[in-house]
Amino acid sequence: MAINRSAEAMTIFAVICAGLFPVFHMGRVWLIFFNLPYPNTRGPVWPNFNSPLMWDVFAISTYFTVSLLFWYTGLIPDLASVRDRAKKKFTKFCYQIASFGWIGSAKHWQRHEALSLVLAGISTPLVLSVHTIVSFDFATSVVPGWHTTIFPPYFVAGAIFSGFAMVLSLMLIARKVLNLQQYITLEHIESMNKIIVVTGSIVGCAYLTELFTAWYSGSIYEGYAFANRALGPYWWSYWGMMTCNVISPQLFWVRPLRRNVWFTFFMSVVINIGMWFERFVIIVTSIHRDYLPSAWSYYSPTYVEISIFLGTIGLFLTAFLLFSKVAPVIAMAETKHILKISGDAQKAAAAAHHSHEPAAASFQVHQS
Q: What is the pTM (predicted TM-score) of this model?
């Protein structure tokens, strides 16, 4: 509950960035309306429905819609809390509109919890289906290195793996800057690191399964594709991926390292770099050695590609900073229940401590 609000927000901002790429990949961005249903005189509703980019349009738009509803539903009680504490009339009015007039009545809470349950039920299979569909962009092709059935579960595990690393990267900074140490505790950080170990091990198993399948299939093309990944011109990206994604997370088996904030932050950045290497390896090393030697080349990014990449990072960080400015980065209404339990425990411990004080005082008086 301490991290779910920020994790949902990061999902939405990442999906916004992802939504830009089908537009760029069309090559002719002014034809983006081909991916949308619109009234036309040309016959079909989707003129370009045969394109695999349509899968991305459906996946990204559905993912964005459900994630936005789920995130905003949980945000409503907290926006009402901010509204009640607002000093300026205009600010109070804005938060009143954003919170839909929430007053925290039993009926409001009942409907809120029912809606949250429905959206959570929709979101869970959606996470699996969206990353599966995105992996099909590769898996349904006949390119060696892509044409493999392990891609769907491998992409889902990789999404959870990199997602938790990204949440850690930003939330550890927010924890320090916004003084949220009492809400995002070492126990939360340790639990996230345990999930990173599990999903990192699954991803590592997927990498090894790919190598085994390439060997066991007997296909010279698959075998060459994977041998070229590990030993070819791009060996540095393959071994960087293996080091960052498979080997380095195993350090979290050591409990002191799991609970070390600085080490966790460093590792989360390393894992994000490793996931970038993974995408680079999947795309570039599979197609830089084609069936025709005349088509072989060594990839180097253009300034346009670098600018798009840096621009999406800037868009993501800008959206997250705006979110942390205008809305609570932790779910106050949900965390309140946890804090009450911990507060009662602290009171009991304090009472036990005070009950021993009179005995200690009488002992000191006797000594004097």
A: 0.77
Domain boundary assignment for the chain: 1-140, 143-299
Q: Any residues with CB less than 8 A from the CB of 114 and at least 6 apart, and which?
A: none
| pLDDT tens sequence across 153-201 | 888 888 888 888 888 888 888 888 887 777 777 888 888 888 888 888 8
Q: Which residue, 67, 62, 73, 209, is CA-closest to 133?
A: 62
Q: Is 304 helix (H, G, I), strand (E, B) or coil?
A: helix
- The residue among 29, 39, 35, 38 whose CA lies nearest residue 60 is 35
User: Would you give the end-to-end CA distance of the chain in angstroms?
Assistant: 52
Give the CA distances from residue 324 to residues 3, 14, 221, 320, in Å, rounded to whole numbers and listed in that order.
13, 15, 49, 6
What pLDDT is recorded for position 363?
40
Both tokens of residue 41? Answer: 């005189």
What distance in Å separates the CA atoms of residue 148 and residue 360, rounded to the nearest whole number? 71
Closest CA to 265 of 366, 168, 348: 168
Residue 103 CA to residue 77 CA, distance in Å, equals: 8
